[in-house]
Design brief:
With 334 residues, this protein is an alpha+beta fold. It has three domains: 106 residues, no CATH class; 129 residues, Jelly Rolls; 72 residues, Phage tail protein beta-alpha-beta fold. The protein is 33% helix and 31% strand. A hairpin with a 5-residue loop joins strand 2 and strand 3. The longest helix is centred in the N-terminal third of the chain and has 19 residues. This is FecR protein domain-containing protein. It comes from Hymenobacter crusticola. InterPro entries: FecR (IPR006860), FecR_C (IPR032508), Ferrdict_sens_TM (IPR012373). Keywords: Membrane, Transmembrane, Transmembrane helix.
Length: 334
């Protein structure tokens, strides 16, 4: 994209006139490098100055000077410059001032959503994301987080599909909200885990530290540390209960804890962590109860433990692992 087109796109975003597709492209561009982020922040600063009801003498003089330079250049077209010459900033400021002066109708237009970046993780990998407000999000395997390049509204909104652990920076004037399945979690600054994987699974919010408010379409729930809210997708019912923090957040250290869980329910966690697919040859195998802790264990050790859990055998073909429960042996005949 040419520089003039890029500056125009940024200006249209600041005037809330960009489409969702343009917002996503711009958010990706801003996140590509510190230089891109500086360009965006500088243009945003000039935009805010131009909207001020009264500018001080120094600011007004600077804007008049830029307009004068722009008028002089309009009479004699300047030769094309490479993208990173010293007058890079002057070109950006001049174009921005021209647009501010000539298209005031942008300001009265209906708002459009801010540009959002998208991060997603494959199986077997997690990722830590630092947001614009300083908050940190650890994204679990096979998860997606959509978030703005900058928080400039009344709320700090992010959208989660999958699972993540949030460490939210405090800002009492701008609540942080996580939109996940049927639940919206609102906090001012705290640590909590959210799991919203869909496909018939529970959506859960587990509070480790601080306070959170969790809302569905009808009600609002306050959680204290050590409490978890679970939404049943089949019935729509909401449960508030205590939880084991080590069991819920252990995935951050590649640790899995199972306490009398069916193998079919534990399988999804094993699959995400080790990037494999578990296939049960019969329902009896899927119903085997599992009591086990895997603390960053290699996959063969996990499979060996599964064999001991329910007299299982397994056969591996690439990323697919077939599990079968051995039939009980008949007692020897006398």
């Amino acid at each position: 994209m040419e520089q003039d087109e890029l500056y125009l796109l940024i200006t249209r975003y600041l005037a809330r006139q960009t489409s969702a597709e343009e917002n996503e492209w711009l958010a990706t561009w801003v996140a590509e490098s510190p230089d891109h982020e500086r360009v965006f922040e500088q243009l945003k600063l000039v935009w805010e100055i131009s909207k001020a009801p009264a500018a001080n003498d120094a600011t007004a003089a600077a804007l008049r000077n830029v307009k004068a330079r722009l008028g002089a250049r309009a009479a004699t077209p300047a030769p094309r410059r490479p993208a990173r010459r010293p007058k890079y900033w002057l070109a950006a400021l001049a174009l921005l001032v021209l647009i501010v002066a000539g298209v005031g109708w942008y300001l009265a237009a209906p708002p459009s959503p801010p540009p959002y970046a998208l991060r997603q993780t494959p199986a077997g990998q997690q990722q830590t994301i630092r947001l614009a407000d300083g908050s940190r999000v650890t994204l679990a395997p096979q998860s997606r987080l959509r978030y703005p390049a900058a928080f400039d509204g009344a709320y700090r909104d992010v959208y989660l599909e999958g699972e993540a652990f949030f460490e939210v920076s405090k800002d009492a004037r701008h609540p942080f909200r996580v939109h996940s399945g049927p639940l919206t979690t609102q906090v001012l600054g705290t640590k909590f885990n959210v799991s919203a994987r869909g496909q018939g699974q529970y959506t859960t919010v587990s509070l480790v530290e601080g306070k959170v408010q969790v809302m569905d379409k009808q009600n609002s729930y306050l959680l204290a540390p050590g409490q978890q809210l679970r939404a049943n997708p089949a019935t729509g019912r909401i449960y508030r209960q205590k939880f084991d923090a080590e069991q819920v957040t252990g995935w951050r250290r590649n640790k899995l804890i199972f306490k009398n869980e069916k193998l079919a329910e534990a399988a999804s966690q094993i699959e995400r962590l080790y990037d494999v697919k578990l296939v049960f040859t019969d329902s009896a195998t899927a119903d085997v109860r599992l009591w086990a802790t895997f603390d960053n264990e290699p996959l063969p050790a996990v499979l060996d433990a599964l064999q001991l859990a329910g007299s299982l055998t397994y056969r591996r073909e690439g990323h697919v692992i077939y599990l079968h429960q051995q039939a009980p042996q008949a007692p020897p005949k006398r």
